[in-house]
Design brief:
- The complex is a heterodimer of chains A (350) and B (480).
- Chain A is 67% helix and 4% strand.
- Chain A is mostly helical and 350 residues long.
- Chain A has a two-stranded parallel ribbon.
- Chain B is α/β, with parallel strands linked by helices and 480 residues long.
- Chain B has 14 helices and twelve strands.
- Chain B has helices at residues 2-22, 39-51, 60-63, 85-91, 137-142, 150-161, 167-178, 188-206, 250-272, 286-292, 294-312, 318-323, 345-361, 467-475, and strands spanning 27-33, 67-73, 107-117, 124-134, 279-284, 329-334, 369-374, 382-388, 391-398, 405-406, 409-410, 417-420.
- In chain B, the strands form three sheets. In chain B, strands 2-3-4-1-5-6-7 form a seven-stranded mixed beta sheet. A three-stranded antiparallel beta sheet of chain B has the order 8-9-12, with no helix packed on it.
- In chain B, helix 11 packs across helix 13 (345-361).
- In chain B, 45% of the residues are buried.
- The chains are: A mainly alpha (350), B alpha/beta (480).
Chain lengths: 350, 480
């Protein structure tokens, strides 16, 4: 050690050679003593999670991570669904009975079809449940990653990174990056650094892919809207494109949304759009209006096309935010202008 | 036969825990620590803060305003002394204020907290009966003896007494041992003499200047009613290589008494108190050990590792692990955090982490959540900055106890003083370097003086540091 640490020492407060808190002091005080009134920090600084991340988490909570809550609507739907399935069961039973009454062979065929239906429904239900749990798990991972990074928690980070690697195990193209992250997890790396490393190695390629999808969808939508002959047609097209885009994004990040999963995801995306409000992630409304304005001055149809493209891009970005297994930490969340810059050049390129 | 007694013992434990479960016992919180670590002060302050409805920002239930009131109730165990909360509180107050008397025996207090639960459907009133059990940490160090035979224990204790730090303290006793023949006939006089020397060695080692910690058997230091009984009149004596003990010999007598100590003192404590705890806080006075030197710190580390063994003691049988309530949270707390400036709290915590690191690494089998904090149950100081000759030092202001010295300054216990205790090392492992014990002030880079309790206005509870965090860790989930 180069510097000798200061020696312990003490000063009596009634000592005449000591100046305490600006009280009348001797001419040349041996020491000044200044009281401190700051409260002692009660706990380590609260885990800081930025606003955008809180918005994403709120959105996830209202869809993907929503808990079942009692409501009369749910009760009514449950009752209705139960009655409907009973009626369907009764109808099937009576149908097969009638078939048997007509001819035994017909009845057997009916029974076989009924069995196929049952197996199919069970399979579908199982797949739905698996898909929903998978999507929920990804959302939980997202929340846990945010906590682990903020708290610099090495154990949690290690566990989560393990889960992330497991999530992408069946993607051959990530093999190299997975191995790299696994090595880092074994070495002595702090929690925050480990999370960042995993994000850089595993999620960045996926981000690029997802952003490419968003850009392609936005481009398609704006083009088709601009040239479509009927308004109804482009509404249908836009909706179909958005559903396809959301699905693609979820799949890119390792989810497999089925029907129910998609509904939950749609809720989260809607919530995220509502929470972020006029402010698309990383963009200002102004920019969008300006872009729209220039395009609409060129042609009304073109303007509509740009607007629909913007809408698609924004939905895509919200989907990206809620589907990503970890929050954006080292990278800035992409904005509309990052994924679809062509929308702001006023359609001059198109 | 030993298997049979073990079985009966286990059955008793299971029956007891089942009884506790059925009678709806509260949350049993064990408060322990080696002597002078501040157990009594911690418990008094904890009860006082809750009774007074103090604002405890980190305790979620308190911060959310869900605690309606707390009150003292009659404790469920009629045979256990009550914790003398009121007396301790009085002793902390007024001009003649002093720290309460130290814990010499087990005592208990039941505190019932009425609160509104925020979990589940809607809000509803609930109450948590908190059974606070205060007992000397030395008893905890006895628990590992349950798994040791006399031969093992004697060898370990003799080995420890020959280390550089302890050799001068134990010289008398070891000299007496050399004239003793373990194979010879049992001799009560000799046994008494050796036991007395052994006890005085333990007493001296515990003195403030040495601040050694690993000193089982614990009852030798606090004998209570059993003073002079055969169960407390034994000492480790060197056995031969084979550990064989001849019937009727000196060694046989010592072994018998060692076993009696286990049967009549350690086991009842384990069965009646320790095995029933749900949560545990272990208070550690790291500052005294820091004052004393690296050897004392290593000794403290050993003691904490032994403490962790205590938490595992008796966990081996399968039956026990299923039926017995386990300690599921253990908090190690460095007390007297108010004796350093808050900018050093992280370092104090890091030092405690280093001290308990070995213990925690071994804790895998315990199945408990473990945390480490630096706290002050009663904050006796305020903070200040000293500027002197171009240096700016983070200091604390308080009334040092009478007779405390620092830098040639001797205090009278009346005058307030601004104290700069020195800097704790940034790397906690540096504190283990060297081999000194009972070091003089000049050899250390720090000097921690003890302060008198703070003067508080009547009816106002004393300020605290992180008592709320400790409470949140220990009880937060039950107050959810």
């Amino acid at each position: 050690m180069n510097r000798r640490p200061p020696r312990p020492r003490a000063f009596r407060l009634d000592d005449a050679r000591v100046a305490v808190d600006g009280a009348p002091a001797p001419l040349a005080p041996a020491a000044f003593i200044q009281s401190q009134r700051d409260p002692i920090p009660a706990a380590p600084a609260p885990v800081a999670i930025d606003k955008q991340e809180r918005q994403v988490e709120a959105a996830q909570k209202s869809g993907l991570l929503s808990r079942w809550r009692f409501s009369f609507a749910a009760l009514a739907w449950t009752g209705l669904a139960g009655l409907a399935s009973l009626a369907f069961g009764l109808w099937t039973a009576s149908l097969i009975e009638r078939l048997f009454a007509d001819a035994e062979s017909l009845g057997l065929i009916g029974l076989v079809f009924g069995g196929l239906l049952l197996v199919g429904i069970l399979g579908l239900a199982a797949r739905e449940i698996l898909a929903v749990t998978r999507q929920t798990r990804i959302a939980e991972m997202h929340v846990a990653f945010a906590r682990a990074r903020a708290a610099d928690d090495r154990d949690a980070a290690r566990r989560l990174v393990g889960q992330l690697i497991a999530l992408y195990r069946d993607r051959p193209e990530t093999a190299r990056n997975r191995a790299q992250v696994e090595d880092a997890a074994r070495a002595i790396v702090d929690g925050r650094d480990l999370v960042d490393l995993a994000e850089r190695a595993l999620l960045r390629p996926l981000d690029d892919k997802a952003q490419g999808e968003i850009a392609a969808a936005a481009k398609r939508v704006s083009l088709v809207t601009a040239i479509s002959p009927r308004a109804v047609l482009d509404v249908i097209f836009v909706i179909a494109q958005i559903v396809r885009l959301v699905r693609r994004i979820a799949e890119i990040y390792g989810g497999r949304p089925g029907f129910l999963g998609l509904i939950k995801l749609a809720r989260s995306i809607g919530a995220h759009l509502a929470i972020t409000g006029g402010m698309a992630v990383g963009d200002s409304l102004l920019q969008q209006i300006v872009g729209h304005g220039i395009a609409s001055r060129i042609s009304a149809r073109m303007g509509e096309g740009v607007l629909n493209g913007l809408l698609t891009a924004r939905v895509g970005l919200s989907a990206l935010a809620v589907c990503r297994p970890a929050p954006f930490a080292i990278d800035k969340p992409p904005g509309v202008s990052d994924v679809a810059p062509f929308l702001f050049t006023g359609g001059k390129e198109e | 036969l030993s298997f049979f007694t073990d079985l009966v013992f286990e059955a008793g434990l299971v029956a007891r825990s089942l009884g506790d479960y059925l009678s709806g016992g509260g949350l049993r919180l064990g408060i322990t620590g080696l002597s002078r670590s501040g157990k009594t002060v911690f418990l008094t302050a904890l009860v006082n803060n809750l009774l007074a409805g103090a604002r405890l920002p980190v305790l979620a239930a308190s911060a959310e305003g869900r605690i309606a009131r707390a009150r003292l109730d009659p404790q469920p165990d009629d045979a256990v002394p009550r914790f003398a909360y009121e007396e301790h509180l009085v002793s902390l107050d007024g001009p003649g204020r002093r720290w309460p008397e130290s814990t010499r025996r087990i005592s208990q207090l039941r505190l019932t907290i009425d609160f509104e639960s925020a979990a589940g459907w809607g809000r509803r009133s609930a109450s948590l009966a908190l059974d606070l059990v205060d007992y000397p940490g030395e008893w905890l160090l006895d628990l590992p003896l349950l798994d040791k035979t006399y031969g093992e224990w004697a060898r370990e204790t003799l080995g420890a007494s020959e280390t550089q730090a302890r050799a001068p303290l134990s010289a008398d006793w070891r000299a007496a041992l050399s004239g003793l023949d373990p194979e010879g006939d049992a001799d009560e006089d000799a046994a008494r003499r050796v036991a007395k020397l052994f006890t005085s060695y333990l007493r001296r080692a515990r003195d403030d200047v040495y601040a050694l910690s690993t000193l089982p058997p614990g009852r030798f230091l606090m004998p209570g009613d059993l003073e002079g009984s055969p169960a407390l009149t034994f000492a480790p004596i060197p056995l031969g290589e084979s550990d064989a003990i001849k019937a009727g010999s000196m060694a046989a007598m010592m072994e018998r008494r060692y076993e009696a100590y286990k049967t009549h003192i350690v086991r009842p404590f384990f069965r009646d108190h320790f095995a029933r705890l749900d949560r545990q806080i272990v208070l550690v006075d790291a500052l005294s050990a820091l004052n004393s030197g690296p050897a004392a710190l290593r000794d403290l580390e050993n003691a904490l590792t032994e403490v962790m063994r205590a938490f595992r003691a008796g966990r081996s049988s399968r039956l026990a692990s299923i039926y017995r309530p386990r300690i599921d949270r253990i908090l190690f707390a460095a007390t007297k955090a108010d004796h350093v400036h808050h900018t050093s709290h992280d370092r104090l915590e890091a030092i405690l982490r280093a001290l308990t690191g070995r213990a925690i690494a071994r804790a895998e089998g315990v199945g408990a959540e473990i945390d480490v904090i630096a706290l002050a149950a009663i904050r006796a100081t305020r903070e200040a900055q000293i500027r002197q000759a171009g240096e700016t030092l983070n200091a604390i202001i308080g009334v040092p106890e009478e007779g405390e010295t620092i830098g040639g300054q001797v205090f009278d216990g009346v005058v307030e003083a601004a104290v700069f205790p020195g800097e704790l090392p940034a790397d906690p492992n540096l504190i283990f370097e060297g081999d000194g014990i009972a070091r003089s002030e000049a050899d250390n880079d720090w000097r921690f003086v003890r302060f008198r309790p703070p003067l508080t206005a009547r009816g106002v509870h004393a300020p605290q540091i992180r008592l709320d965090r400790a409470l949140q860790f220990l009880t937060g989930d039950r107050l959810a």
